[in-house]
Description:
Radius of gyration: 20 Å
Strand content: 25-35%
Shape: globular
Oligomer: single chain
Distance between the termini: 11 Å
Helix content: 25-40%
Number of helices: 12
Largest sheet: 7 strands, mixed
Number of strands: 19
Structural class: alpha/beta
Amino acid sequence: MRAAVLHEIGQDKLDVLDDVEAVGFGPGRVRIRVRATGLCHSDLSAMAGVLPQPGPFVPGHEGAGEIVEVGEGVQNLKPGDRVVVCWLPACGTCPACKRGQTQLCLAGFLNAGTPNFKRPAGDVFGFAGTGTFAEEVVVDAGCAVPIPDDVPFDIAALIGCGVTTGLGAALNTADVEAGSSVAVIGCGGVGISAIQGARLKGAAEIVAVDPVVSRREAALKFGATKAISPEELAEAKQSVTAGEGFDYVFEVVGRSTTARTAYETTRRGGTLVVVGAGALDDFLQLSMFELFFDEKRILPSMYGGGDVLRSYERTIALWRAGRIDLAGLITHRVPLADINEALDQMRTGVALRTCIEI
């Protein structure tokens, strides 16, 4: 079958090959025919070595498709079922799951250390234990979440990561208060989803911050009340909040420099929500005095900060009701053969989300 492979960490191009085989099928596992997958910035971060991932590997973790085959013991899935790929499944038995913090379950991360594919040259891993830039993938049954028939595969793929992450950051982690002021730094697919979440919660002012003009223009269509470049943030803080700072600031870039800017843009007693996935060696510096004196809440948000399955269901309900726009997030479409074109679209910032049709 075909899959897009990164041979070595640090390379910036993927090699679309037809000699890749999905492996690991057996009890408790399912085989999925991938139909659509989104390109998330985390895929680029893993390719660059910012996020830890063994190689060679097939990127992709934001996918949807159909069940082809189910292993022994799989009860709730059958061939032909439409599913979204969940890269962080809950085991249901660990301490985090028992506390109701299923987004902190580590079972899914353990999958990343087991090869999902093989080639004549050897084993190939799947990013985050999945690897959806492939025609087929074999995963634990818990990674395959059934979706209703009326949800298109491209929409379902977005729900698998970016939308759940951004929307949940506003709805679950921050629990944005109606009438509040919000700034979102980084307005790709995840940032735009955070903007939609803040709008749903009734935020009065939502300032979108991004260096790319097209993303700023898009942010206004999705609910931002003002869209600015990073250089204009200090001025917006003054004009929107009279210099006090925003009630909520979402950092959706994953860098200590932007997180520090976000902290300084948050009002005293306000909330900084860290959504971007950054590097292990990129440290945010804060003094003990400012932590105490400013009383700003710093809330990391992992995969939307809530139960993943409930978040999927809520997102579908909001989409059906027309309360959120998911189709509009897909600004570009490419076939798997042109995956490197999608990478360029993400790197230059021209795309909110590129859908790779497989």
